[in-house]
Amino acid sequence: MEIRPGVLRTPEARFASLPDYPFAPHYLAVPGGSLGDLQMHYLDEGPRGAPVVLMLHGNPTWSFLYRHMIQPVADAGWRVIAPDMIGFGKSDKPASRGAYSYDRFVSWMGAFVDALGLRDIVLVAQDWGGPIGLRVLAERAERFAAVLATNTLLPNCEPPPRGIEGWPGTGIATWIETCRISSDLPAGELVAGASLRRPEAAVLAGYDAPFPTAAYKAGLLQITCGIPVDEAAEGLAANRAAWDVLARWNKPFATAFSDNDPATAAWAPVFRRRVPGAADCAHPVIPAAGHFVQEEQGMLLADALLRFLADTRSPAAPRAGT
Questions:
Q1: Is the pLDDT of residue 315 over 80?
Q2: What is the DSSP string of 64-115?
Q3: Cα–Cα distance between 209 and 90 in angstroms, integer?
Q4: Which CATH class is domain 2-312?
Q5: CA 71 to CA 76: how far, in whole Å?
Q6: Is the pTM of this model over 0.90?
């Protein structure tokens, strides 16, 4: 459904009867340049004045990915916010691939954090939620209190970071080229292909729901092309600047990677080695899960997150500006 020239919005009927997704929708506007303001959808559960757990998805998923984690964390007294990136989920979808870039994804998410006035944030980041979320953190470090990274990365072409042999390697290069030349890719099948066990049909339909046709998939196709794998890449300097911030980050930083995700496995020790705040944190491995650990082992990851929060933080009394 085109809401104005160049911007698509998925009809709400596409999201009817999603399994285990009873959450009320929320929306705010972020600047879209020549496209005008873009509507960003997000979930907002738990006490409004409590410290924030910000759950960021990647590609080709949306807040649906976190459906098994949101309620347990909210029930423990935390305010859980799970946005859909522009181009994904219930958020607006610019129709042109040229409307998307790594820096724009960061800008949109930064505008989202600023618009809600979020502070005292615990960032939970997976897949592209890491490169985007950690960039937002680096630019607004005073707003963030802790990080739980799962199956994610922050590439910077050193090779990224120094000491990971073979990265990016042929697998990443092939995936970038596939996205570059494709006019359509099936979201549900991408999730299934990176999982140890094929999700049920209704779940895969939930991942397909935001994309009625290939016309809605410009963001899905273009985001992978933004991985900075060479010295000319957009976002490379900003990623290196983010690593400079993380190299001085003394607040809690935990990893909770799955045991079966070869695409990101090498990054867990990099975060643990390079981020000072990781030294005193537990770093659990989530068993029996592929890349989309929230989908296959969402309750186990929620338990790991709650232990991390209990070890490092506690829900606070309501405060202004959150």
A1: no
A2: GGGHHHHHHHHHTTPEEEEEPPTTSTTS-EESSGGG--HHHHHHHHHHHHHH
A3: 9
A4: alpha beta
A5: 9
A6: yes
Identify the band that residue 159 occupies on the pLDDT scale cut at 50, 70 and 90: low
**Residues constituting the chain:** 322
The count of C-alpha atoms lying within 13 angstroms of the C-alpha of 152, restricted to the half-sphere facing its C-beta, is 29
Q: Which residues pair with 81 in a beta bridge?
A: 44, 54
Catalytic residues: 127, 261, 291
DSSP annotation string for 158-193: SSSSTT-TT-SHHHHHHHHHHHHH-S---HHHHHHH
Give the separation between CA 44 and CA 48, rounded to whole angstroms: 8
Cα torsion for 258, 40, 187, 138, to the nearest 10°? -40
CA 241, CA 243: separation in Å to the nearest integer?
5
- Residue identified by tokens 């590439």 is 155
CA dist., res. 242 & res. 141, Å (int): 10
pLDDT at 321: 36
Q: What is the pLDDT of residues 186-219, one digit of tens each?
A: 999 999 999 999 999 999 999 999 999 999 999 9
Give the dihedral sign, CA 29/10/84/168.
negative
Residue with token string 């299934």: 192
Quick one: which of 276, 57, 218, 30 has its CA closest to 151? 57
d(CA 228, CA 176): 10
Q: How are strands ordered across the β-sheet holding 93-94?
A: 2-4, 7-8, 93-94
Written as six digits, the tokens of 26 are 């929320």
In this predicted structure, the answer to whether residue 131 has a pLDDT above a threshold of 60 is yes
The conformation of residue 216, written as its DSSP 8-state character, comes to G
Instruction: Report d(CA 242, CA 143) in Å as an integer.
Output: 15
- The residue whose two tokens read 């522009």 is 86
How high is the mean pLDDT of the chain? Answer: 93
Q: Kindly list the distances between the CA atom of residue 245 and the CA atoms of 102, 156, 250, in Å, as whole numbers in the listed order.
A: 19, 14, 10
- The DSSP output letter for 316 is P
Structure tokens at 108: 């949109």
The pLDDT score that the predictor gives to residue 157 is 81
